[in-house]
Amino acid sequence: DGGITQSPKYLFRKEGQNVTLSCEQNLNHDAMYWYRQDPGQGLRLIYYSQIVNDFQKGDIAEGYSVSREKKESFPLTVTSAQKNPTAFYLCASSIHREDYGYTFGSGTRLTVV
Amino acid sequence: EDKVVQSPLSLVVHEGDTVTLNCSYEVTNFRSLLWYKQEKKAPTFLFMLTSSGIEKKSGRLSSILDKKELFSILNITATQTGDSAVYLCAKGGSEKLVFGKGTKLTVNP
Fold it and tell me: What is the pLDDT of residues A21-68, one digit of tens each?
């Protein structure tokens, strides 16, 4: 079955450590996105990529980094520069254009202690 | 700033009630308006609206877009406890979807 897989589902890290969240899709979608969700804040865009080896900053990119070396994969690194990293992270993908809608992964809940 | 505003932010109803969720947006780069339902983890797609005045229906859910007044509504009739979720509205048209904060709907038995 085609879909988008995020791993791990839950992640605990100590303050000051970098951590990488995985996102893989087998839908042959061109575009991939990372959103952060906090209670009462909705979904806020971190980074997005429309083609391999290219990505753009979203609204809250500071403290995060991404890569897009393969069409299927769009990992997100939460660096120690991110001041408040504890949140729910959602990865999504879409075919060609975002206004056709996204397919979402199940999310990763990151807790920094 | 590219804004999508949803109201109310939170709503508590009893089973059987009808609810209307609202979403307003800015006209810049508009191509589509999408509704998603988020129960626990991944948001699931409900509707995509591109034309004004044409209602889309799926069972007890329906949605309509008003491009003149820049808003959309999502109606849920005869609500059930399984409708309890966060409903997200998103605007498409600028290389990425811009989401509102969501409406948290709680349906009590």
Answer: 999 999 999 999 999 999 878 899 999 999 999 999 999 999 999 999
Q: How many CB atoms lie within 10 A of CB B57?
A: 11
Residues in chain A: 113
Which residue of A23, A36, A99, A103 to mutate against B (max B Cβ within 10 Å)? A99
Q: Measured between beta carbons, which residues in chain A are less than 8 angstroms from residue B43? A: 43, 90, 102, 104
Q: Which residues of A touch B31 (CB under 8 A)?
A: 97, 99
The count of C-alpha atoms lying within 13 angstroms of the C-alpha of A68, restricted to the half-sphere facing its C-beta, is: 20
| CB count in 10 Å sphere of residue B63 | 24
